[in-house]
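name: query_chain
kind: protein
chains: 1
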Amino acid sequence: MLSATVPIPPSPDFWQQAVRQLLHPGQPLGQALQAQAGAALDFSGVQLMVPAFSHAQNFKAALSRELRRPYIAPRINTLSGLLAMQPPGEDAPPSESERLMQLYAQLREHGWLKKMFSARRNADLLPLAHTLLDLSDELTLALLPEIRASAAGADAIAGRWTQALAQLLAPLAPSAHAMLSEEAALVWQIWKIQLDARDRIVQRFDAMLDLAARASLPLIWVSPTEPEPLDAAFLAAYAQHQPVRIVTLDWSRAAMAPLYPLYLLAWGELVREDEGLAPAYEEFAASAPSELSEASAAAAPGALPLLCPASDLENAAVQSAQIVLRWLEQGKNEIAIVAQDRVTARRLRALLERAQVSVADETGWKLSTTRAAAALAAWNDLVSARGETNALLDLLKSPFVFPADPGRADRVMRIEARLRRANIAGDWQALQTAFADASDPDDLQCILTLARQAARFGGRKTLSQWCETQRRLCEALGMDAALREDGAGQQCLLMLDEIAAEQGALQDQFSFAEWRALLNLRLDATSYMPPIKDRRVVMLPLNGARLRRFDAVLVIGADAAHLPSPPQETLFFSNAVRRELNLATRATRQRQQLRDLVELLCINPEVVLCWQTHQDGEPNPVSPWIERLELKLAQQGAAPLQRLELPPPVKQLRALLSCMPAPSAPDLLPSRLSASGFGSFLACPYQFFAQRMLRVAVMDELSDMPEKRDYGSWLHEILYKYHAHLRDNDTPLPARAPLLAQFSEEVFQREMQRHPAALAFHARWQKVMPAYLLWANEREAEGWQFAFGEESQSQALQWSDGGIELYGRLDRVDRNEQGQRALLDYKTRSAASLRQKVKEDDDHQLAFYGLLAGGAIEHAHYVALELGPDKKTGDAAAPDFGRRQKMLQQQITTTMQAVAHGAALPANGIESVCQYCEMRGLCRKGAWL
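structure:
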């Protein structure tokens, strides 16, 4: 039977020309038309195969326009759709998960592979297994027809493989030969193992050949590109039984030169020198020479693309959104967005959806980028990090975790605040200890639930067991119901079920790290396509626009980094090797991408190319293809490509003069006041307003390094234990140093298990201990004894029409034989700096603590826990302590009463206060001063 090609140059009426050619005498549709004479037109005796089902509508619309009367359409399908209608084979191919993990299980048994590919653990070989399978499939797709063609096919391919490897090794140093030879042997061996009767591609090829052997209808094959090797073999086999017509784009020089001379001059690689007219072209040209050329010439576009350079990502997205909105206002209902730059495209989609414009995404996004997949990944990160705090908070903040808990938001806030305040880096035991005394027992229960579930993710399991464990987790955390209500979540659950069902004969067991790597690979390889509600605006890749015509097209990412797409070479598969093995090379890929771009320009009446002129502060040049087109226009003396720039809509804003904020909020006066709170009021009333009245708080930062405040709290604990022991037990002087060292070791050993960096503070305290013991013993010799310490106190302070409660925690109170009491406050500072501090009039801390004790404190001291230049510690006594208490009491009463009566709270802090103030973003001092 005859197999012939119907070449048609790219043009807006491609489908009309295709139908017109196929209705000629001698063509499948033309023969059916002649056979039926004047009867009803029935083309159901012809099989039409299109690249995608969307092309079927284009073909039928063109056929209707050409016939202008009722007809029965040909049988239209895609090759995959037709194969899916065939009865399944007896031996089903292994699933992707089973196939991948089978190969991985074999690779992990070879330690030399880990060394060759710098894999630190077994799970790092999983991406390698995925890459090897991709290479194996690519080799099968390209070489299987040649192997099947003759008995010597396999030997010929082996010879070409050896020759390709020799060409690759020739220019390299001998030291690199061994590594590349091992890589080559690995790829070759994996491919030969995969090339059996159970291989998915082999079974598909067998089904294609079986379908061709049973061919009963003439075939019309429509494709914008040359048939791939498997497709070419199928068409050749089909042509042995029924006529085959291949309708494709004609990129020959003879076809392009008359219609698009500018494009051919700018991009000479559009055609290959060995690419001439197709065999059947002369036959069609002879039958209708004028019709083809005149139709093509009439359909040639008269407009060149418009350029839309944008300064940055946001500007590119805004400009693109305005272009699309303007097209919609003009009544264009078929708009395509070609997303070469997916990051900018995602931002554009968000802007359009904000403007109530739905985008039908035909490409989809990686499932791993959805919130549902992020929840699964967050759990796996938490298990891998063994309860690390940041991973825990990421999980708890996912909307899919504990969604039915009515107090979920408050609980997450409490958990985060406690962990940050205590600077707990993680570990399940540390987390449970931190919440053992939580005010809400459900907080501890939440941590316990997560810890119990994490314990189930240990050991080694089969794939189905891992899927079952993951599903049980979703049920325990309430994620199952939330995922089912989300489109991407449903796909995640379905993927888990598929992995479990795809295990097949694979009974190997895998660790959690291996399961996690597999799950991440599957999430990355799976596309999520949101439901399409409106198809006026379609987002697709460049190759998705083949043989499709739109009212307008916007290409995002027309820069050198995205157009052409960056090459991806795998292992040693360089262009030389690919060329020798008849695989797709970088040149062939770029030529096809350039043809896709030219087809876009030839078919669509309006095309805008947008890109960012700068990225990360660096210039980002336009695509070299566009530069070459502009250069050719300049050489011919033609006008350059037009620039399109749509300024953002002008908004009228009312100017307001900035001034110092001075709010008044008598109803927000706090009922309790601490020493630090009153210090905040004295430093800046507005700071007090924001922090204490509005309760605006900045979360503490988690740090792997302990801070000075942690050091201070450890010393408080050590000294309390030490002095309480001396109070309750008769301890001679020689035993006191070992006792203090014992308490110190207990505290620091505990903390160094959580924070190894606490060792530096431990060494620091070791130097201070002898000097502190000397000072403490001298104070005891003066008659002062430890009374109590680390005790919370409060005292009510009243005025005529209100009051406030003072509260705080006293570090230590001593008593002497006369019944006098002295307040001691520990400071990790030197004695000299503390003596200077107590002289300052605005130092109110000791006086405030004296008020907490109800005025029953006669003396107050700061105690230095840091060595001075003389290698000693000491204390600094507050002068005139009783008078300072009375003055502070009057000051607090006056100021708090004024606030209760509506006094203004201005942002009048000095620069030293404002420099590190966390509330500066609210007062905006830099805007009004």
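note: Residues 276-302 have pLDDT under 50 and may be disordered.
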